[in-house]
UniProtKB/TrEMBL annotation:
The keyword Lyase applies. The keyword Lyase applies. This is Carbon-phosphorus lyase. It comes from Haloarcula pellucida. It holds the Pfam family PhnH. The lineage of its organism: Archaea, Methanobacteriati, Methanobacteriota, Stenosarchaea group, Halobacteria. Keywords: Lyase. InterPro entries: PhnH-like_sp (IPR038058), Phosphonate_metab_PhnH (IPR008772). GO terms for molecular function: lyase activity. NCBIfam families: PhnH_redo. It comes from the Archaea. GO terms for biological process: organic phosphonate metabolic process. Signal peptide: none annotated.
């Protein structure tokens, strides 16, 4: 994926290991090659999965490799979500009770940080791989995270979410329960009341 600035051997291998760590330890942030969202998509997309993205650079790079099997976000295996995406994560495929692994992986182009971070939305996580609870802050609105929580509410069905920007990546797998911080919701409500 040199067209994306990603070494197709060494850096995709590095990204795969980081994704495994991030998925197995939700709430942690791992380092990957930049740009992180491209590195994640280049690592996950092969000739057997469908992908939804409105990023022309990414589409052209995948197409030139014969790896672009495009599909709408509602049925794609990998969904690349930029800041102004126009789909509802609750409508992405969530797999079945028999084959829950058929659920989509949604790759958000968004900053992420362990713990609380100013200007990012904190979520509380608990479930497999989390020691008690963990806080992850991500650069997506609370409403999107609420929709993600709904998409993951019928375990083992759900979607896996990956947040990637710069050289950082974090994940919230479908097995984990997430709640948007009450503090964030209160701040958002106060802002609406002032407006």
């Amino acid at each position: 994926m040199r067209a994306l600035g990603i070494d197709p051997v060494h850096e995709t291998r590095e990204t795969f290991r980081a994704l495994l760590d991030a998925m197995s330890r939700p709430g942690t942030v791992e380092s990957v090659p930049e740009p992180a969202d491209y590195a994640v998509v280049a690592t996950l997309v092969d000739h057997e999965v469908t992908v939804a993205t409105d990023d022309e650079t990414l589409r052209e790079a995948l197409s030139s490799q014969g790896r672009l099997d495009a599909a709408p976000p509602e049925v794609a295996d990998i969904v690349h979500a930029r800041e102004s995406h126009a789909f509802d994560v609750r409508e992405c495929t969530r797999g079945t009770l028999v084959e829950p692994s058929g659920g989509a992986t949604v790759v958000y182009e968004a900053e992420c940080a362990s713990g609380r971070s100013e200007d990012l939305t904190p979520v509380t996580l608990f479930g497999p791989g989390v020691d008690g609870t963990a806080t992850l802050s991500v650069g997506v609105p609370p409403s999107e995270l609420d929709a993600l929580a709904t998409a993951q509410s019928e375990y083992p069905r759900g979607v896996d979410a990956v947040f990637a920007a710069g050289d950082r990546v974090a994940a919230i797998p479908r097995s984990v329960t997430l709640t948007v911080s009450d503090e964030t919701t209160a701040d958002e409500t106060a802002a609406e009341e002032v407006a």
